[in-house]
Amino acid sequence: MTVTYLDHAASTPMRPEAIEAMGPYLDVLYANPSGSHRFARRARQAIDEARDRVAAVIGCRPNEVVFTGCGTESDNMAVAGAVSAARHAGRTGVSVCPSVEHHAVLEVVEHDVHGHLVGVDAAGHVDLDALASTLDQLAADGTPADVVSVMTVNNEVGTITDLDAVARVVRRHSPDAWFHTDAVQAASWVEWSDVTPHADLIALSAHKFGGPKGVGVLIERGRAVTDRVDPIIVGGGQERERRSGTHNVAGIVAAAEAFAITAAEREAEIARISALRNALVDQLVGAIDGAIETVPRHLKNAGSAHVCIPGIESEALLFLLDEADVCASAASACASGAMEPSHVLAAMGVDREAALGSLRLSLGHTTTADDVDRAVEVITGAVERLRRPVAAHPGAST
């Protein structure tokens, strides 16, 4: 079976080096790193070395690296933990985020009585004026923001945030707030020097950059070092009381290996994948009547090939792609029996008909020119089939 995998934003194939790195910790060095015997200490040493490698890439101190179970947990700990810590300190516990955030952040904010959403522009960038106005109003009401969360790279349409500009707004209008960024989609596409200096809290997920599922990272730096957010998993005291639970040693070691390789290859991969992405989108837009590139490519990451195709439904298109072994995803979900545009496209003001035909194609480290050629062939054929008029049933009245 030949699989054309264009769903790297959902999960990347593991890097061979990461798989190899896991091996010893699955069947030889299997001891619990919280133990006191020498076999446990060897496992603990592997975690410490992995922490050092992650810190070196991020540009932070090793003691600012917290290993978690996934990106969602890291986001939850950052936002919910900041709110909890603020309330324990006698503050209101106010959270703010844009309306296009991943649900791991969005649901924490919008389900809280003191959560506030901020609008975005047509490309999905947070509206800085609206953010400043919201923060000023909260301060004037006596309930200043305690945590502001803005993602580095949008998981759906690939928009890259200017974190320096956002951080300056947060520091100016809400100087005591934690600034968190969901950087889960950023590892393959963004230099960490454009991220780390600006955020107090940074969330990562290993399976987005060639590591295993089940490993996340939360970087706690800046204000988070002296005024820490509350942990959301307690009971064992691992990770210096930041996140309890037995360490996934094999996964952590593999994650660090994949993270280091991704950083080393980032510049060359961006150039290679940009060319493939451009060829993919140009051919689809050129061949499919009405198809549009959702976000201008100079505003998004190199692996994002998000398009909208009016006149079809994503669900039907994805069914045909799946039948042809082309792996992709959509930005719409079935709610109450009706296809609805994603919250990201709705917030960006994308036309409803176009949004219902959204297609998220995302490229990564295993993508080849052959993948692009086959995807174009299958997608254009599937769209043509879906748009083909249905022939009248024999004998039907006219």
What does this protein look like?
The chain is of the alpha/beta class and 398 residues long. Helix content is 41%, strand content 12%. The protein folds into two domains: 4-10 and 266-387, Alpha-Beta Complex (Aspartate Aminotransferase, domain 1), CATH 3.90.1150; 16-260, Type I PLP-dependent aspartate aminotransferase-like (Major domain) (Aspartate Aminotransferase, domain 2), CATH 3.40.640.10. The strands form four sheets. The protein has a seven-stranded mixed beta sheet with strand order 2-8-7-6-5-3-4, sandwiched between helices. A three-stranded antiparallel beta sheet has the order 9-10-14. Helix 10 crosses helix 13 (369-387).
Question: SSE layout and pairings?
Answer:
Layout (H helix, E strand, L loop, with lengths): L3 E2 L10 H7 L1 H4 L10 H21 L6 E4 L2 H18 L6 E4 L4 H8 L4 E4 L9 H13 L6 E3 L13 H11 L4 E5 L18 E5 L10 E5 L2 H4 L22 H39 L4 E2 L13 E2 L5 H10 L2 E2 L4 E4 L2 E4 L1 H6 L3 H5 L1 E2 L9 H19 L11
Parallel strand pairs: 1-11, 3-4, 3-5, 5-6, 6-7
Antiparallel strand pairs: 2-8, 7-8, 9-10, 10-14, 12-13
Helix pairs in contact: 1-9, 3-9, 4-5, 6-7, 9-13, 10-13
Please describe the structure with a list of short key phrases separated by commas or semicolons.
Aspartate Aminotransferase, domain 2; 12% strand; single chain; 41% helix; 398 residues; three-stranded antiparallel beta sheet; 13 helices; alpha/beta
Please give a quick description of this structure:
With 398 residues, this protein is α/β, with parallel strands linked by helices. Helices cover 41% and strands 12% of the residues. The chain has 2 domains: 4-10 and 266-387, Aspartate Aminotransferase, domain 1 (Alpha-Beta Complex); 16-260, Type I PLP-dependent aspartate aminotransferase-like (Major domain) (Aspartate Aminotransferase, domain 2, 3-Layer(aba) Sandwich).
